[in-house]
């Protein structure tokens, strides 16, 4: 795990840090070979040098973005263009990690 990503997540407000840590663990369980780094001031996860996922905090939410999403059927809670989809998680939300992992696995399978 990248120390820069760890420090970034630890410096978020507690609820955002908790969700981000959970999402980070899920990404690494889904894509064990994923590399991570801070890019564009937020944590990015790469597989074979290609973007797979991004954790993007804002004032009132954490957006979890899945890249390479073309052709995958995403639930209505997701927004974004065909090539990348995101879901916004707010304080008190419990992300469906199994569903997110499944979508991430599908999207990253061709990277």
* Helix and strand element order: HHEEEEEH
Task: Look at the structure and give the mean pLDDT.
Answer: 96
What portion of residues is helical? Answer: 25-40%
CATH topology: Aspartate Aminotransferase, domain 1
DSSP strand content: 25-35%
Largest sheet: 5 strands, antiparallel
What is the C-level CATH assignment? Alpha Beta
Q: What is the count of helical runs?
A: 3
- Per CATH, the architecture is Alpha-Beta Complex
Helices, strands, pairings?
Elements: H1 3-10, H2 14-30, E1 35-39, E2 42-47, E3 50-57, E4 62-67, E5 84-89, H3 97-108
Antiparallel strand pairs: 1-2, 2-3, 3-4, 4-5
Helix pairs in contact: 2-3
Describe the structure.
There is one protein chain. This protein has 111 residues and is an alpha+beta fold. It has one domain (3-108): Aspartate Aminotransferase, domain 1 (Alpha-Beta Complex), CATH 3.90.1150. Helices cover 33% and strands 28% of the residues. The protein has three helices and five strands; from the N terminus they run ααβββββα. The chain has helices at residues 3-10, 14-30, 97-108; strands at 35-39, 42-47, 50-57, 62-67, 84-89. It has a five-stranded antiparallel beta sheet. Helix 2 (14-30) crosses helix 3. The longest helix is centred in the N-terminal third of the chain and has 17 residues, at 14-30. 32% of the residues are buried.
């Amino acid at each position: 795990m990248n120390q820069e990503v760890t420090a970034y997540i630890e410096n978020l407000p507690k609820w955002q840090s908790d969700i981000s840590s959970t999402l980070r663990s899920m990404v690494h369980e889904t894509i064990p070979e994923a590399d991570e780094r801070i890019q564009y001031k937020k944590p990015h996860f790469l597989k074979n040098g290609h973007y797979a996922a991004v954790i993007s905090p804002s004032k009132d939410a954490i957006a979890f973005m899945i890249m390479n999403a073309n052709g995958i059927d995403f639930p209505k809670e997701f927004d974004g263009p065909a090539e990348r989809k995101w879901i916004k998680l707010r304080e008190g939300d419990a992300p469906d990690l199994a569903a997110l992992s499944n979508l991430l696995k599908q999207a990253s399978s061709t990277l």
